[in-house]
Design a protein that fits this description.
Layout lengths: L6 E3 L18 H14 L3 E4 L13 H14 L3 E4 L9 H11 L3 E5 L3 E2 L16 H7 L5 E2 L3 H15 L2 E6 L2 H12 L7 E7 L9 H15 L3 E7 L4 H10 L3 E4 L6 E3 L2 E2 L3 H14 L7 H8 L10
Parallel strand pairs: 1-2, 1-10, 2-3, 3-4, 4-7, 7-8, 8-9, 9-10
Antiparallel strand pairs: 5-6, 11-12
Helix pairs in contact: 1-2, 1-9, 2-3, 3-5, 6-7
Length: 309
Amino acid sequence: MGKPVIITCAPTGGIHTPSMSEHLPITPNEITAASIEAAEAGASIIHLHARNPENGKPDPNPDLFMNFLPRIKQSTGAVMNISTGGGLGMTREERLRAAMTASPEMASMNMGSINFGIFPMLNKYSEWKHDWEPEFLDMTRDYIFKNTFADLEYNIKTLSEEHGTKFEFECYDLGHLYNLAHVVDQGWVKPPFFIQMVFGILGGMGPDLENLMHMNRIAEKLFGGDYEWSVLAAGRHQMSFATQAAMMGGNLRVGLEDSLYIGPGRKATSNAEQVNKIRGIIESLGLTVATPEEARERLDLKGGDRTAF
């Protein structure tokens, strides 16, 4: 039997907008409830963004995070993983604010600059709840999600040296693995490394199985036994890629940040629904789901008692 599978759940993210699904968590209360339900369903890591509770726009305000982080911690043993990707268009400083305040066990770290195109979603909707939504999507026609080497050095050193935070290294393309290898060579991070391979974002790797196989081979070549790997795929590829990752001995991520659906043409009513579905698949393969404590041990995290919430 393979290692227990670490399930990460990303409940809301900074990509989908409120008009796209009535089930997308927006307010601190909704994010709290969604996270607790996902943890109870089997997610050992919760990857968190915040939103303006009035209009649902991605918001870097640490006060919003501190409204839900302690409540999730009180109700679950899950690892809290705070996004440093934030929302498209945020500055580097804005993207770090929440993690700097909360001093979490984990934070996401995007490993390279890419074109990040979500403008095709404009064609799928004709009515919008808020004026910012179509403008937000359309601006990505001429947008680079900036993560330079200077950004990586500043972000990683700040969070690792000052807070003891470890990272979900989000790799949207092959070169991002080599960027991480450079970071490792500089001594900015220590193993084990948690690598999240991201598929299906326009501007990054396409959702082709050959890409997953090749990324896994190169990661093994670069990092050997010093890493844990996980897979997320956007939209309709979410469950198939998560299943493939589990079959290959990896870990996986689900959640409404990555896909609003539970099956063809059917919206997920909650994040827990997605977690329950992939858990059922994992267990049908004869595998088990990792507990939060197993995830902490394998990723060498500092523990929930050393956060600032």
